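Re: the 354-residue chain
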Amino acid sequence: MEQTHAHVPMRTIGPVKLIGSVVNDEIMVPLATYELPLWPSTNRGAKLSRQCGGILTTIIDERMTRSILLEAPDAARCHEVSLAVKLRQPELQLQIARSSRFAKLIDSHTQIVGNLLFLRLEFSTGDAAGHNMVTQAADEVMAWLLNQYSFLRYVSISGNYCTDKKATAVNGILGRGRYVVAELLVPRAICLSTLKTTPEKIAELNTKKNLLGTMLAGGIRSANAHFANLLFAFYLALGQDVANIVEGSQGMVFAEARNDDLYFSATLPNIIVGTIGNGKDYPFVQRNLHLLGCHQDRPVGENARRLAAIIGATVLCGEISLLAAQTNPGELMRAHTIFERQAHDSAPESISTP
């Protein structure tokens, strides 16, 4: 009989303690993954969050993008259109309103290559991740431009300057999704007792591994140990487009010994999530959104901001735990062996996901 669903183990970890203007709460976090040691490792970070008074999360920015690609007779006319887009933004917004009442044009950026015009449109999208919303809005912008400037020719609704599900510099610089920073100050005594290491060792390893190691590998705007692991598990449990971990995993860890304690932060400029839209109607996703408090009657956009903040804090929990383990020779493999055996023996709950 043909299987129609993939069964992925899921557990909740926590509670994770968050503080800040977006979320001030202790939250159990569902994670769906085949990487079974991820649960106890991230749970150690969650314990740390409670011991240290909470992870401070800040939403720096939010925008979803789509880049259209047009062709003109020459570069001069491409430049003419690029200037006009900035000057005529109110007219463009009127066109966009025909496709969505939530999509709002925030900004635009252009690149001109020969006679090709790459136009990166940036929108706010409320509580939706916004992939379809911005594509529909871009269609309206494209039609309007082709009507206004008869010398233009359609090439593509997506010119790869967005950039969707690809590791690029532009997303890290200009942002795509929610830009989240999570921070935690760990007193030395707690660092020693819970993480079994020192602030200096974690800060030094972050510099040598995450910063220098990634530079040697040719990483693109990334300096982290395993953001993708946490994002995959979170996205799958919450009905998100899992392929967005490609750009979501581009982010930075910054750590330093500060007055005998450890300052540790995770910066994620491309967290693409939503609490409404495709993938959110499955019963397990609805349950998990309720568990996180992201399914309540709030002003437009606030549920998605809350979800993004929780992701940032969860990523920090997993990152600090893994880095701490790697400061001690042999600990990573020993922990993997023990946790994988325990996870298999206890038969974790499975969810059915499309």
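The beta strands are 6-19, 25-32, 55-71, 104-113, 116-124, 153-156, 177-186, 252-258, 261-271, 350-353.
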